[in-house]
Amino acid sequence: MPLFSSAEIRGIVFDLDGTLYVCDRFAAEIQNAAAAYIVRVRGITPREAGELMAATRQRLVEESGTVQTLSAVCVELGGDVRELHRHFERTLRPEAYLVRDERVIRLLEGLAGKFSLYIYTNNNRVLTTRIMDYLGLDGVARGIFTIDDSWRGKPDEGMVKKVLEEVGFSPDETLFVGDRYDVDLRVPEQLGCPVYLSRNLEQLLRLEKLLTSPFPADRSAAPAWPPAVRS
């Protein structure tokens, strides 16, 4: 990956789930909801659905060499991404699992005063709105891009190009932040964007210091943007 000075950054595009919040219990609930959907699609038991989804995910990983999303697994098993997300809207209750974190609120409010913030998520708009509102993050993003904008889930080059076009910044001015390199960051990086892998809240909270550190007048001496971790 080329090295970037954070002095160049004008816009930040955040992933949502697993990035702006981390909640293993809610992640497990999403997995259970997807399994219940596959039970209906395939006419099998919940145990069979779980085993089939795990085996399918592993096969797709081996075939592609990259991490596979839950939506991709469900579609491979005969599901429809629109129906899957309607099922999520009806059954998931993020409010029962998520906890508002004032540190994240302060982080985004602080960054919003210096950069244009956006959300780009594989979640649907209904659940994204509910999650953002419940976490106290409503209003911090200038724009939100969800899977129902195109019904093409990450990673998708066309959708990343659309995000870049709509935010109005060049790739080297647009930082992408996510918790999964293959899903959230690989395509933006290939298009020339700086990327930041954040797998927990501690890594997320370091972002403000990295972005707001003073830079020397000589741009060539400015700190280089840290490369994403791929493992």
Reconstruct the topology from this structure.
Layout: E1 11-14, H1 24-42, H2 46-64, H3 70-76, H4 81-91, H5 102-112, E2 116-120, H6 125-134, E3 143-145, H7 157-167, E4 174-178, H8 181-190, E5 195-197, H9 201-205, H10 207-212
Parallel strand pairs: 1-2, 1-4, 2-3, 4-5
Helix pairs in contact: 1-2, 1-4, 2-3
Distance between the termini: 15 Å
If you consult CATH, what is the topology of the largest domain? Answer: Rossmann fold
Helix percentage: 40-55%
SSE order in H/E notation?
A: EHHHHHEHEHEHEHH
CATH superfamily of the largest domain: HAD superfamily/HAD-like
Note the main sheet. 5 strands, parallel
Number of helices, where a helix is a run of at least 4 consecutive DSSP H or I residues: 10
> What is the residue-averaged pLDDT?
91
CATH class of the largest domain: Alpha Beta
- Order of strands in the sheet with the most strands? 3-2-1-4-5
Oligomer: single chain
What share of residues are in beta strands? 5-15%
Shape: globular
Structural class: alpha/beta
CATH architecture grouping of the largest domain = 3-Layer(aba) Sandwich
Low-confidence stretches: 215-225
Strand elements, count = 5
Key words describing this protein structure:
five-stranded parallel beta sheet, alpha/beta, Rossmann fold, 231 residues
Description:
The chain has 231 residues and is an alpha/beta fold. The chain has 2 domains: 6-23 and 100-221, 3-Layer(aba) Sandwich (Rossmann fold); 24-95, no CATH class. 47% of the residues lie in helices and 9% in strands. A 5-stranded parallel beta sheet has the order 3-2-1-4-5, sandwiched between helices. Helix 8 (181-190) links the parallel strand 4 (174-178) and strand 5 (195-197). Helix 1 (24-42) packs across helix 2 (46-64) and helix 2 packs across helix 3 (70-76). It is globular, with a radius of gyration of 18 Å.
